[in-house]
Design a protein that fits this description.
Elements: H1 21-25, H2 27-36, H3 40-46, H4 53-56, H5 78-81, H6 96-100, E1 110-115, E2 121-124, H7 125-129, E3 135-142, E4 147-157, H8 158-165, E5 173-178, E6 197-201, H9 202-206, E7 211-216, E8 219-220, E9 230-232, E10 245-251, H10 258-262, E11 286-289, E12 297-300, H11 308-311
Parallel strand pairs: 1-10, 4-11
Antiparallel strand pairs: 1-2, 3-4, 4-7, 5-6, 5-10, 7-8, 7-9, 11-12
Helix pairs in contact: 2-3
Length: about 325
């Protein structure tokens, strides 16, 4: 298989390409204004993400440090990245998570670390956030449905957290289990084997690109984007990135993952972005890039989402059509 080298991670995104957050943060003033005109209810129903504005944005800034990890692509505006989401626990339509995720309470929050690890423990989210300085990284984010965004995620390498937990040599995989209680997620659709579960091979989880994520756009994660803690592995399709994580399990066997169990011929365990391996129902050769333009533009999909230099060596000798 011919692997083409994607764009450099060392490029810089100009500030002129970033939609000012102040514009979006003025939504509360907008709501006050339309209510005064007597059309507040109508506006709330028609504008995605405004029904529960606190679910869209947490208004809590993070202290971050600069990172070498970035891409030259124009960033997706904050308002689009937080109102067009796959998060089935809060609705199967992409506009629903921003409206429904206000039910999720992210404090108190703990993560249980268990399995093949020297230090099994339950850790408070605020303690996890203090393990390492939080970096701001601009990553391409590719969905299996052939649309993509460019998002500034905030966190630190998952591998740094894993090292602190001291997994045993026998640990070959890491499983991430998401929250699923009915109080936080009262309207989960039926027909799915909740809780949501995903997993990575140990070397994938330890790759420096794999981000343990607490925020985006310089602020804590909005609920619909995976608050308060999620994983971002930018060379994989988005569904691999578990949200609202409550358990991290180290195991010697490939863990169950929700979408792979539902349809293994459509959602492989690895799910690396690969333009040469189509989904059974659509091509993966191109993607719809969601940016500041009114309509998504179609762009060619890059192997490993453009992160060939950083991750290709992990799959040397593997048949990527068989191990998709």
């Amino acid at each position: 298989m011919l692997i083409r080298i994607g764009g450099s991670l060392e490029g810089k995104v100009g500030s002129s390409e970033i939609t000012p957050k102040e514009t979006f943060l003025n939504r509360r003033n907008f709501l006050t204004g339309v209510a005064a005109l007597g059309v507040g209810t109508l506006a709330l129903k028609q504008v995605p993400g405004l029904l529960h504005p606190d679910a869209v944005h947490a208004d809590t800034k993070l202290t971050t440090v600069a990172s070498k990890y970035t891409v030259p692509d124009a960033q997706t505006p904050f308002a689009k990245a937080t109102t067009y989401n796959n998060y089935y626990e809060f609705g199967t339509d992409k506009s629903e998570p921003a409206k429904n995720a206000h039910t999720l309470r992210t404090r108190p929050w703990t993560v249980q670390v268990s399995g093949l690890v020297k230090k099994p423990q339950t850790i408070d989210i605020d303690t996890i956030m203090k393990y390492r300085p939080i970096e701001s990284r601009v990553y391409r984010h590719r969905c299996v449905e052939a649309w993509s965004m460019v998002i500034p995620w905030d966190g630190y390498s998952l591998g740094e957290f894993i090292s602190a937990m001291e997994p045993l040599p026998s640990a070959k995989f890491v499983q991430f289990i998401s929250a699923s209680d009915n109080k936080n997620m009262p309207d989960k659709p039926g027909g799915y084997d909740w809780p949501y579960s995903e997993g990575l091979r140990m070397d994938e989880a330890m790759n420096p690109l794999c981000l343990l994520t607490f925020g985006c756009y310089g602020e804590v994660l909005p609920n619909q984007n995976g608050a308060p803690i999620r994983v971002v592995s930018p060379w994989k399709y988005g569904f691999k990135n578990g949200k609202a994580i409550v358990k991290i399990v180290f195991t010697d066997k490939q863990p169950r993952t929700l979408w792979n169990e539902i349809s293994s011929n459509e959602y492989g365990f690895y799910s690396n972005v690969n333009p040469t391996v189509d989904h059974p129902r659509w091509s993966q050769a191109h993607e719809r890039r969601i940016d500041s333009s009114p309509f998504p533009k179609t762009v060619p999909t890059q192997m490993f989402n453009g992160y060939v230099d950083q991750v290709a060596s992990m799959y040397a000798g593997m048949d990527l059509k068989k191990n998709f």
